[in-house]
Amino acid sequence: MKHLGYSAWVSVNGTPLIEYEAKAEGSKISCWIPSEVGQRFIVHFENLGSLTVAGDLYLDGQSAAGRTAYPRKKTTIDLTGFTSGPTTQKPFIFLKLETTDDDSLLNKTNADLGEIELVIREIIVERDMSFEERKITNYSEGKVHERTKKAIAHRAGLGKEITTGLNTFVKTRTIRDIVTFVFRYRPIGVLRANDIAPPLATSGKRPANDIIDISELTDSEDEGDDEERIAVLQAQLATLQNKQRRRKRIKLDPDVKAEAEDRPRLSGEVIDLT
């Protein structure tokens, strides 16, 4: 995505993920991207201006990484993982969302679940800093209540720790926020079910957008991972229910003009189908 003179994207295996329905509002721009369990991802941004900026990364609402970009130096900055030590890092990876029926978590805020957010800020670099002085000290990968997972099956997590070169850090002072990029990630089947991503090419009498091939959503049959199938079927059910309500309304009152389809959105609501 590009906005206000800056650009950012998410890549997997060196290839940028396809971005769907990019929408800008003020200084924020957002889009949808497909996610797949086990995929390692990297967040990139470009600094083509004359300012020294920081790219601060948040995964599911948690601070996860930050990089400084100086003008007239390397323009593309890569955020590859969570810095776990002076010479170690845990790569970013899409993982299965773990749920629980523990009611103590029922009221826990999950508004940012399913989002990768990058905030570009103008900064002043004050001095070098040690690893121990960093504000980002840990990353929680806890469970969420099964009734508040927003019909998604994935989360942005951390992979196994790897050894890197010596990590360097600087202490900065923020002048202002410039632009915010939000990547909302979902399984590709969920994006198709909500008409965000194009449907698969199909044959037969039924319309393509009424057919969902959920076989592609299982990463491994041995893992017994049905969460993605459930999320897709929930989205498909909501779509069909909306169509049925519109048909009934038109049938009861032929003078009523059909309204635009109220497709099930995935952005912030709590879904409880129990």
TrEMBL record:
Pfam families tied to this protein: DUF7918 (PF25534)
Record-annotated DUF7918 domain positions: 9-198
Top-rank lineage group of the source organism: Eukaryota
Region listing for Disordered, in residue ranges: 247-274
Regions of compositional bias (Basic and acidic residues) in chain numbering: 251-266
Xref: PANTHER family: BETA-LACTAMASE-TYPE TRANSPEPTIDASE FOLD DOMAIN CONTAINING PROTEIN, TRANSCRIPTION ELONGATION FACTOR EAF N-TERMINAL DOMAIN-CONTAINING PROTEIN
Protein name: DUF7918 domain-containing protein
Species of origin: Tetrapyrgos nigripes
